[in-house]
Amino acid sequence: MRQSGSRSILRAVLIAVLTTVVLLAGAGAFVAQAADPIKIGFGMALTGGLSANGKPALLAIQIWKDDINKKGGLLGRPVDLVYYDDQTNPATIPGIYTKLLDVDKVNLIISGYGTNLIAPLLPIAMERKLTLIGMFGLANNEKYQYPNYFQIQPAGPDPQISTAIGFFELAAKQNPKPQTVALVGADAEYPQNALVGARELVKKFGFKTVYDSSYPPSTVDYTPIARAIKATNPDVVFVASYPPDSVGMVRAAAEVGLQPKIFGGGMVGLQFTTVMTSLGPMLNGIVNYDFWAPETAMMFPGIKEFFAEYQKRAKDAGVDTLGYYLPPFAYSAVQILGLAIESSKSLDQQKVADYIRSNEFSTIVGKVRFGANGEWAKSRVLQVQYQGIKGTDVEQFRGPGKKVVLYPEEFKSGNMIYPYSAARK
Question: What is the residue-wise DSSP string for 198-216?
């Protein structure tokens, strides 16, 4: 009897222990599953011609990741970033995103920075039916009209004219109205798209084109181009360029004494802190597109806090000191993605895309709603004029007054100095 009782007790103890082990193992598996990170994958220009903007964009995305993880992550799971250097080379994109999707098993992707790097990614996203947020690509989706593509650049429903529309509207309002236009840009994806839009606007506003030419992206000396433009004596010079050629064109214009009535338009790079401090007073009078400026009307909720954190980290990271161009939009891109995941309570590509397409988002760059082609439903591309720049001290660019917003009217912070030569004095 005693032996039988002992066996019963032993059996009961073993069953209890095994049950506890199974329950604990199950709980451990549940905890592990709940803690599995949501992985967001992307390529980014950390070397090459666009790295001066790619590195700050990465820092902004990392700040968002830290912010969201402090709040408990997404869907109760931490967020992890998986990224590779695309070297500012479109040829790397298929390999990078194939690895992200098939080897790293990321849950969602975003693009790297720039039109040329988004172009080879869109067909991959379409083939795999992925949600894709593009980062500063101009008119990438005009050919495809892919419904699950969304663009954080505030270009608006007609992206090809977005960079130039404000520039030519301002030109047309001057008295006397300018008559002749020179168009010039690099033979690359963004500049060529911008020039297509500029040509439409030249016709719309009744200007006469006296110069229209492209140059190879490998161009080093821009002085012959500036001289050729000067020989046509245009009233308006519209330039569509990437950072290295933007700097080259500004320096060449100063060297040859190019003095149209309005100069600038579509020059990428003039927004970067290092470029502004490098060119200094040579920027005075240039009217150029931008997306954000430290003017009162653009202090959206959360933007000051973002810049405080970004600028604190930027010093140690050795990236753009102020970060006024791409970083707040890079943060907003993943901010929107996170809001869509949380609100749809899903990582399903289609559900996330449907939510993004159907809703307005409050971000650190203001209210964002996307239109049918994935661009912003309403354009918010600024035209700013550089005014009163003295020397190359970075502090002068930190506050208002140096990049005066001329367009659109709702964000206007000052008047244009016209003609260009007057602002150069």
Answer: HHHHHHHTT-EEEEEEEE-
Q: How many helices (H) and strands (E) does the chain have?
A: 14, 14
* pLDDT tens-digit readout, 141-181: 999 999 999 999 999 999 889 999 999 999 999 999 999 99
Whether residue 85 contacts residue 106, with contact meaning beta carbons closer than 8 Å, is answered with no
List residues bridging with 238 in a β-sheet.
183, 264
Residues 340-378: pLDDT tens digits? 999 999 999 999 999 999 999 999 999 999 999 999 999
Residue that has been written with the tokens 């309403």 in this structure: 378
Q: Using CA atoms, how far apart are residues 259 and 92, in angstroms rounded to an integer?
A: 41
**Among candidate residues 331, 332, 327, 325, the one with its CA nearest the CA of residue 288:** 325
How many angstroms separate the first and last alpha carbons of the chain? Answer: 111
Round to whole Å and give the CA distance between 115 and 53.
13
- Please provide residue 295's backbone torsions phi and psi, each rounded to the nearest 5 degrees: -110, 155
Cβ neighbour number for residue 72 with a 10 Å cutoff: 10
Measured at the CA of 127, the angle between CA 141 and CA 156, to 5 degrees, comes to 15
φ, ψ at 367 (rounded to 5°)? -75, 135
In angstroms, the CA 284 to CA 421 distance is 9
User: Residue written as tokens 């001329």?
Assistant: 406
Q: State both tokens at 221.
A: 């000396």
Helix (H, G, I), strand (E, B) or coil at 207: coil
| C-beta of residue 413 within 8 angstroms of C-beta of residue 385 | no
